[in-house]
Design brief:
- The protein is mainly beta.
- It folds into 2 domains: 116 residues, no CATH class; 87 residues, no CATH class.
- The protein has 2 helices and 20 strands.
- Strands 1, 2, 5, 6, 11, 17 and 20 form a 7-stranded mixed beta sheet that branches.
- A hairpin with a 2-residue loop joins strand 12 and strand 13.
- It is globular and about 60 Å long.
Length: 207
């Protein structure tokens, strides 16, 4: 049976991973030479290759153990994106005003953690399902509030519903749910005896 293992991919290997968001765009070129473009995916999917992060035999040993324990592609796990892993810029510390996660209506008590990506008047909002325990800070109208956080789903829950019109914001660090995108590791030793894993593909899971 498939499952999600609440464990993080070894960060010493992840720090050298190469990858990022992928989208799918269908393009049809008309007789006039103009294009019609369509995006069948509402959200992006993140992919990485963690192979470049293997720098030593110890890294390779750690990777093999992690791969075998996940049964290759069978079970998902947490992955810390070396670049995009918090509610703010990489150089900053998460703060309670970083991301707007909802507006109170006097009834709702649960609010999903999200991160927005904005540029040139356009915005895309990403659901955050795997926040890092102990990092989530939530505020109501700029005042820090006490909430319970489900670190398996990214839901922040209030004991009492925020007032109608209240702005709910949050700051947090987060992991990305992924799985291996291969059932085989191609492993070798280089000329100086260090471990080499040419390709260790990872793909984001939509939970």
């Amino acid at each position: 049976m498939t499952a999600f293992h609440d464990i993080r991919f070894p960060f010493a290997v992840a720090i050298g991973a190469v990858g990022g968001p992928q989208r799918r765009t269908e393009i049809v070129t008309l007789v006039s030479g103009r294009e019609e473009r369509n995006a069948p995916w509402a959200d992006s999917v993140r992919r990485w290759d963690a192979g470049p992060g293997v720098k030593s035999l110890d890294d390779l040993n750690t990777l093999i153990a992690f791969f075998e324990a996940r049964r290759a592609r069978l079970h998902g796990f947490r992955f810390r994106d070396p670049i995009d892993n918090r509610s703010c810029a990489p150089s900053q510390v998460p703060a309670m005003l970083d991301q707007r996660i909802g507006t109170g209506d006097g009834v709702a008590t649960d609010f999903q953690l999200v991160k927005s990506y904005a540029s040139g008047g356009e915005r895309w909002t990403r659901r955050i399902a795997k926040p890092v325990e102990g990092t989530v800070i939530v505020a109501v109208d700029g005042v820090e509030a006490e909430v319970s956080v489900d670190h398996a789903t990214g839901l922040a829950s209030f004991a009492e519903p925020p007032a109608t019109g209240a702005e709910i914001t949050a700051g947090f660090a987060f992991d990305c749910p992924v799985r291996f995108d291969t059932d085989q590791l191609d492993i070798a030793l280089d000329a100086v005896g260090a471990g080499v894993a040419p390709s260790v593909p990872l793909i984001e899971l939509k939970l």
